[in-house]
Backbone:
């Protein structure tokens, strides 16, 4: 509860926000409240004044239901403007509260809600926001209640003992049985008229005081909200106390008053005395027991005490420990669905006293038959049955139109007014029974009276039954109770015995003899029988309490309980049903983890962890503590799959915040259990890491570190290490400062002491955390913490006797780089790939690691990136500087390991530290790294099959080639390095940069870089000329002038023919194999285009398209094919829509297709670009107008990387021209003197096939020729060329039927 001393604007905002969120999320609640406000408006209000309010309410509903943010915003602005222009009232304040909450204006929303309490406090506290009233206002009104009780007691004291039997100490036992409620007119008949009038006036004063103080404190809370800067202190206002005579006094709230010292015996600020509103007079008729009213009264009646005693005697004659249902005679079973009506003397045969005499259990007619709770707002239907308003309203809202008990049809679904007569009877009964509990059908729904209410209950009823109970503390009586527990055949007697034993235990120090007797197996079994048969929650709690106390002192009790499985099952069943105290007994039983998992206790354990233990008995172990220890036991010893499942349950139940509370527990064992559980949660779902790191109290954990065992210490270190794995470096730094500064002892000194004595497998993680803490400041020349930590990592990494310690040390080194994903996994490898030029792979890895998080931002915040780079630099410098690079030797040894779990993290760490040498000051450490690691990196670079591993080793080698010594040591392996770099250059720009560095100033290196070697040659002269050739996967397809298509595969230096088909009748001029798909297209002079499937079974013709014209220079994109016909123009054919002719004014020689654009090289030396989607034609190069028009045709045309390469005769000095694909400007030329007839372009090279049979190789970057390929066995011109997917093989087809394959070596 909020007190005057600790009430803050934040708490006011929290309660107001919670109220608004609840109303906005529940349409039924919102509809009910709107109906309440409309009904409270004055009947004389005009339609004009009601219309704006109704319109604003409808607009608000539209804003809530729409998903369009702009519509919602405009609707809310309109509703706000409408309400602000209207006269302020309670209805408009309520609507403004909801509007401001939707607009994310919490202060305005809270102010509007408080204004509602100012305008209509009765409505606000009783109908609209009773929760807000209880949390914010009620605690301030304790003086009002005390004042009321004091005045009321004075009025009641005027009644003498003879006239008011309830105050008569000599009243007979039947009358004093508090389970019997006398008819209200018997009580009122003892009052005088003046006394009744004074009570009525006192009630009015009480209501007025409550309302007036609501207004006062609402204004006080509003003033606190308006004071945003906290520059001045606002004292709580004085409480106003008034009566009807005008007498007034005030009391100042004490600042330090604790809410736990009071108890409010009211609901929503209403005391509910026994007077009806507006009642002018009271008819005092004394009704004897034998008299009956002429008609059934409208309020429930109770049985007499004599009849209750008869029922009690009947219960005693029943056998012991039979189920309750069996103990009830037929026709007398207790049912809440029976009628509540009847005459005063009518015997209610279905009513039974509770096991303890019923002195604290509500009479049945005061309990709702639906909710099984005391009536708060009773309503009596037309059928005569009474229900709780909310319960019967929900019954009707579900579509039921009958009375739940009588099943009679209801003529009206509009509920009547509150049954104030019954409500006041309940209030009077509660005054006489201050310790009473509602009668519940199941103990799981019972609620203990909070401590806050106990003090005022005592003030209201000083003669409380509990306070006047006389407990016989004699040992003889206690022994008698123990005998009854073991021997009695009557359940009620055994239950009473348990309650008395529990009371003795709580109030007296029992002798050892008595404790010893309680631990005997017969007594323990008697307690267990109570657990099996009793349904009273108080008895069950007392029984479990006693078993826990006995079991914690004597192991024989636990042994007795675990002898019979059904006994354990009964305890577990009670716990699952809501008896929280049973978790302590389950913990004391010390069950195995497998048994706990099989019992499916996790949900109940989480409920116990979330529950408030304030109302629980003072046990040897708190239920929350026992639940926490059990959860940690299950998570710590279960199989991985079970552990994952249970951890997911903890996360889905949102119990992380409740588990964090155990970090501040008194017991160190509970703190360790919470640490273990939270560690599992962070490892399962890293999204909770930031919240735990931000909110968890670390000081209690650090304080219990010294006294913990080695296993517990390791768990704490793992937990702290996990906290600093956030994806925000600045946040990790803040957490490290907290770890370093919290606790009574020096954290670093404690960790150092632990590191020096810890087992080998625990050293790496301790060293990693210690190193993190040491580097919070700029690395010093000498630090004992840093030296010890790095020494421990190196020692563990080189200790082959402990493989687990080696792997842990290697993984710790990887994490030291300091970059993590949202799930807490290191991103060292991903960022190294980024530095190596594999950006796509970097993004893929990060996306996978960040999957499920709110967003993935590759362009990191500048401050975060700066902090991460600074941390990486400091950590790398500390590691490589230790003992002049001693760590490199340990990493080199790790790279030789045959275990991938060790070799892989060592490779990542070695690559990272070697790469960081290029950005750290050179103190000679680079030489030590080169000696230890260069050969290992070259070996990985040469032999690794994975592109990422090769790229990482390349990144490390790049650091070594920065100086002459590195180049010298790399010379023996230069050819292998160059070959690997050429293979990687299509993936990484870094490979190309390294190629330039290695070839700079060395002409022989340039030629070595582009060295080609003839692999093989085959003669296909019998099939005529080789007109077309294409590479697809590991196969080569060639088209010949006789219509043959051949399929080849290359293995080593042999080009092997695997298939030959001849379905074209004339020469195959074109072969096209799109990169996506498994189809091959062939164009022929026989006027057809064939579509072939490429599979393991070879080529198979799927479709034949008749083009009605010769097909030359075929290109294909999707479902569109373009080719050069026999005449002018270019034909574009769609497989579904037919053909059309484009560029009809040009005689086209060659075609190229890229990104939906068709490029045409014409006989008149012109080049055109055609957009196939729109048909737009653009000129890239204008042709030369000559008489014949075909003197200088474009022989070949290729498009690659946004550049257009065209080849023709060198009449203007350049045979090959290079154009920009974006602006058509010429960006370069290749000055070849050859007669180019074919062309192929790779990432770095341009191949020109000449008429004389040779192939010139040109460098794309420098536009210079680097090599010329000659084949001595052929004099034919080069007709066609193709490059394989890896750009390592060049295949050439000639006019004399030869096929040559060249390899880039």
Residues:
């Amino acid at each position: 509860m909020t007190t005057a001393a600790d009430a803050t604007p934040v708490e006011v905002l929290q309660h107001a926000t919670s109220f608004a969120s609840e109303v906005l999320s529940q349409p039924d609640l919102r509809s009910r409240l709107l109906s309440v406000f409309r009904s409270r408006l004055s009947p004389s209000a005009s339609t004009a004044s009601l219309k704006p309010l109704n319109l604003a309410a409808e607009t608000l509903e539209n804003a809530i239901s729409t998903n369009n943010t702009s519509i919602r915003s405009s609707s809310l602005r309109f509703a706000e403007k409408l309400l602000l222009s209207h006269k302020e009232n309670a209805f408009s304040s309520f609507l403004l509260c909801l509007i401001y909450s939707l607009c994310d204006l919490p202060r305005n929303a809270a102010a509007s809600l408080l204004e509602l309490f100012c305008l209509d406090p009765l409505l606000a506290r009783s109908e609209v926001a009773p929760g807000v009233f209880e949390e914010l206002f009620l605690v301030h009104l304790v003086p009002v209640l005390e004042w009321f009780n004091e005045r009321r007691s004075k009025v009641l004291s005027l009644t003498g003992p003879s006239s008011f039997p309830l105050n008569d100490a000599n009243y007979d036992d039947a009358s004093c049985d508090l389970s019997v409620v006398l008819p209200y007119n018997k009580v009122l008949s003892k009052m005088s008229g003046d006394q009744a009038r004074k009570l009525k006036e006192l009630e009015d004063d009480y209501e007025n005081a409550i309302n007036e103080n609501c207004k006062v404190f609402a204004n006080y809370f509003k003033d606190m909200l308006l004071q945003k800067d906290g520059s001045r202190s606002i004292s709580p206002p004085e409480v106003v106390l008034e009566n009807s005579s005008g007498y007034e006094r005030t009391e100042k709230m004490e600042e330090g008053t604790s809410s736990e010292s009071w108890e409010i015996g009211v609901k929503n600020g209403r005391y509910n005395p026994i007077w009806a509103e507006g009642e002018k007079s009271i008819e005092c008729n004394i009704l004897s027991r034998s008299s009956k009213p002429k008609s059934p009264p409208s309020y429930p009646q109770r049985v007499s005490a004599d009849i209750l005693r008869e029922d009690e005697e009947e219960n005693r004659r029943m056998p012991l420990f039979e189920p309750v249902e069996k103990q009830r005679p037929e026709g007398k079973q207790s049912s809440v669905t029976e009628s509540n009506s009847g005459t005063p003397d009518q015997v209610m045969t279905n009513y039974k006293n509770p096991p303890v005499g019923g002195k604290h259990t509500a009479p049945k007619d005061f309990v709702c038959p639906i909710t099984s709770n005391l009536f708060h707002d009773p309503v009596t239907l037309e059928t005569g049955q009474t229900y709780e308003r909310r319960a019967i309203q929900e019954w009707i809202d579900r579509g039921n139109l009958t009375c739940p008990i009588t099943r009679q049809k209801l003529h009206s679904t509009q509920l009547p007014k509150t049954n104030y007569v019954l409500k006041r009877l309940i209030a009077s009964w509660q005054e006489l029974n201050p310790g009473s509990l509602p009668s519940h059908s199941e103990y799981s729904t019972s609620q203990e009276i909070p401590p806050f209410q106990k003090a005022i209950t005592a003030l209201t009823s000083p003669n409380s039954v509990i306070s006047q109970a006389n407990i016989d503390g004699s040992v003889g009586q206690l022994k008698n109770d123990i005998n009854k527990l073991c021997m009695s055949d009557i359940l009620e007697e055994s239950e009473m015995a348990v309650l008395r034993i529990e009371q003795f235990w709580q109030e007296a120090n029992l002798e050892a003899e008595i404790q010893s007797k309680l631990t005997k197996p017969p007594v323990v079994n008697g307690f267990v029988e109570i657990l099996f048969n009793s349904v009273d929650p108080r008895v069950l709690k007392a029984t479990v309490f006693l078993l826990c106390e006995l079991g914690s002192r004597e192991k024989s009790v636990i042994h007795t309980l675990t002898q019979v499985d059904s006994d354990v099952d009964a305890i577990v069943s009670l716990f699952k049903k809501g008896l929280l105290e049973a978790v302590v007994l389950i913990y004391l039983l010390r069950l195995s983890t497998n048994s706990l998992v099989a019992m499916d206790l996790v949900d109940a354990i989480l409920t116990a962890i979330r529950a408030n233990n304030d109302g629980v008995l003072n046990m040897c172990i708190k239920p929350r503590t026992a639940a926490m220890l059990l959860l940690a036991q299950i998570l710590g010893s279960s199989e991985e799959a079970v552990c994952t499942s249970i951890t997911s349950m903890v996360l889905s139940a949102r119990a992380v915040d409740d588990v964090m509370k155990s970090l501040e527990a008194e017991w160190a064992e509970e703190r360790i259990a919470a640490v273990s559980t939270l560690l599992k949660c962070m490892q399962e779902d890293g999204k909770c890491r930031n919240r735990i790191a931000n909110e968890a109290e670390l000081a209690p954990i650090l304080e219990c570190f010294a006294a913990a065992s080695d296993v517990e210490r390791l768990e704490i270190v793992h937990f702290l290490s996990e906290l600093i794995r956030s994806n925000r470096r600045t946040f990790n730094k803040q957490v490290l400062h907290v770890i370093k500064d919290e606790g009574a002892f020096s954290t670093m000194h404690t960790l150092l002491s632990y590191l020096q004595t810890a087992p080998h497998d625990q050293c790496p993680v301790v060293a990693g955390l210690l190193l993190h803490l040491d580097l919070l400041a700029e690395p010093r020349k000498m630090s004992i913490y840093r030296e010890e930590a790095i020494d421990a990592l190196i020692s563990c990494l080189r200790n082959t006797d402990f493989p687990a310690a080696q792997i842990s040390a290697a993984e710790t080194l990887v994490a030291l780089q300091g970059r993590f994903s949202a799930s807490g996994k290191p991103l060292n490898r991903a960022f190294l790939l980024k530095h190596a030029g594999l950006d796509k792979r970097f993004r893929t890895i990060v996306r996978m690691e960040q999957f499920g998080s709110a967003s993935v931002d590759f362009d990191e915040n500048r401050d975060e990136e700066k902090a991460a780079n600074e941390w990486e630099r400091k950590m790398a410098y500390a590691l490589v500087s230790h003992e002049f690079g001693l760590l490199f030797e340990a990493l080199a040894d790790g790279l030789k390991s045959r275990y991938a779990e060790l070799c892989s993290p060592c490779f990542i760490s070695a690559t990272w530290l070697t790469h960081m040498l290029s950005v750290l000051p050179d103190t000679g450490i680079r030489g030590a790294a080169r000696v230890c690691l260069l050969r290992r990196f070259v070996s990985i670079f040469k032999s690794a099959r994975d592109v990422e591993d090769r790229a990482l080793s390349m990144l490390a080698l790049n650091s070594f080639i920065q100086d002459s010594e590195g180049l010298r040591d790399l010379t023996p392996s230069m050819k292998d390095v160059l070959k690997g770099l050429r293979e990687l250059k299509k993936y990484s720009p870094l490979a190309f940069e390294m190629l330039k560095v290695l070839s700079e100033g060395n002409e022989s290196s340039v030629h070595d870089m582009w060295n080609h070697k003839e692999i093989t040659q085959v003669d296909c002269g019998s099939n005529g000329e080789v007109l077309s050739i294409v590479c697809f996967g590991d196969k080569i397809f060639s088209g010949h002038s006789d219509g043959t298509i051949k399929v080849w595969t290359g293995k080593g230096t042999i080009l092997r023919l695997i298939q030959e088909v001849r379905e074209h009748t004339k020469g195959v001029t074109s072969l096209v194999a799109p990169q996506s798909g498994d189809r091959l297209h062939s164009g022929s002079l026989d006027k057809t285009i064939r579509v072939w499937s490429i599979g393991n079974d070879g080529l198979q013709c799927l479709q034949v398209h008749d083009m009605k014209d010769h097909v030359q220079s075929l290109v294909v994109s999707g479902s569109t094919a373009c080719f050069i016909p026999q005449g002018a123009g270019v034909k574009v054919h769609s497989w579904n829509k037919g053909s059309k002719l484009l560029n009809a004014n040009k005689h086209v020689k060659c075609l190229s297709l890229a990104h939906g654009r068709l490029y045409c090289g014409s006989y008149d030396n012109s080049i055109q670009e055609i957009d196939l989607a729109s048909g737009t034609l653009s000129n890239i190069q204008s042709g030369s107008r000559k008489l014949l028009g075909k003197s200088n045709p474009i022989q070949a045309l290729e498009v690659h990387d946004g550049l257009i390469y065209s080849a023709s005769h060198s009449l203007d000095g350049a045979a090959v021209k290079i154009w920009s694909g974006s602006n058509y400007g010429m960006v370069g030329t290749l000055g070849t003197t050859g007669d180019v007839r074919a062309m192929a372009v790779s990432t770095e090279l341009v191949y020109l096939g000449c008429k004389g049979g040779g192939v010139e190789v040109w460098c794309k970057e420098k536009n210079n020729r680097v090599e010329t390929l000659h084949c001595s066995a052929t004099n034919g011109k080069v007709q066609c060329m193709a490059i394989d997917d890896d750009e390592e093989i060049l295949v050439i087809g000639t006019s004399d039927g030869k096929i040559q394959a060249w390899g880039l070596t």
